[in-house]
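Supplementary Note 3. Input sequence used for the single-chain structure prediction.
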Amino acid sequence: MPERSIGMPYWRLSGYYFFHFAALGALVPFWGLYLQDRGFDPVAIGHLMAILMGTKIVAPYLWGSIADRTGRRLSIVRLAAILALVIFAGIFVVQGFWWVALVMVLFSFFWNAALPLMEAVTFNHLGQRVNRYAMVRVWGSVGFILAVGLLGWLLEDATTAIVPLAVLALFLGMWLSTLVIPEAASTKRSNGHVSVRGLLRRPEIIAFLAACACMQMSHGAYYAFYSIHLEANGYSSIMVGALWAWGVLVEVLVFMRMHWLLERFGPRRVLLVSCAIAVVRWLLIGELVGLLTVQIIAQAMHAATFGSFHASAIHLAHHYFPGRTQVRGQALYNSVSFGAGGAAGSVISGYLWGSAGAGVTFAVSSLAAAAGALIAWGWIDRQRRF
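The predicted structure, written as C-alpha cells, is reproduced below.
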C-alpha cells in the first residue's frame, strides 16, 4: 500500500503501532511469569502488573494536556519513547519489590504517555477517513502476534530472563519509529470554545468512560494471570504463546473489516456486543481451562473483547472530544479505562487468585464486563450513530 496513493504516512504510522504493541506482547503474557520466577507471590504480581495499568491514570492526560496546549505532539512522543527505553534498562540491576516497582512506575509512565498522542496524530493524518483507523492499528496486532509467538517458542528452552531483553529491543524499535513520522496538523472544527470540563458534564460521555473502565477492569485477571493459569494446568510455553497469538490473529482479521462493521452497525452496537462477549469469555477461561478447544474459542473472542471494543471506543472518543480537546479526550479514555479500570482489575485479581482461585476470579471479571454492557446499553448514544 504505497503512502502516496492513500495520502498519509501509512507505513511510518504503522511502524510505531507495530513496535508499541510488540512490546506489549512481550510484557503482558510473560511478565507475570518473569516476576514469578524472580520469587514474587500472586499478591505482589497483581500489584506490579497493576502498575503497568495504573500509570495510565495520570500519564496520558498529563502529557495530552501539554500536547494540546503546545501542539508538539510528536516531540513529546519521541521524548517519552527514549525515556521509557533508558529507564526500563534499570530492571536488569534492581532487586526487591520496591525497586522493581519503581522502575515499572517510571518506564510505564513515559511508555503509556505516548500512545494517546499517537492516536490523535493518526486520526489527524486520516482526516475524514476515520473508519480506516483499524487498517493502521492492525500492524500493532501483527507486532503483538510475532512477539508473543517468538517468545513462547524461545521460552521452551530459555529462562524468562530473556523477556526483559526482548522488551528492551522493542522499546528501541519504538523510539526509532517515532523519528520518521511527520507531524499532522490538528483538525479544525467550528465548535467554538469547548472545554473538557464542560464535555464531562454530558451523561453519555460519563457513561462511556464508566463502561470502558468496567470493561478493562474485567481484563485484570486475564492480563496478570492467564499465562500462569495455563501453565498451572499443564500447557507448555509454546502453547501459551500460541494461544495468545491466536487471539490476536483473529483480532487482526476483525480489524481488516472494522471499518465496515462501524459503518454498518455503528460504534454503540459494536461496543455493546463486545462487552457481552467478554462476559462469556471470562467464564470459559475460568471454568474450562483444561479443554484446549474451549480455550481456542475463548481466545478467538479476543477479537471482540479487545479488537472491536477498542476500535469502537477510539471512534467514540474521537467524536466526543473535538478540536483542541482531542488528545485529552483520547488520554481520558486511556486513563479511565486501561488506567483506573485495568489497575483495579489487576489488584483485585491478585487478592482473589490466591484465596478464592481462578474460577471465582474470572467470574468477578465476567460481572465487571456485564456492568460495562449495562451502562453502555442504558446511556451511550441510544439515538445516535457516528
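Residues 97-126 form the longest helix (30 residues). The chain has a mean pLDDT of 88.
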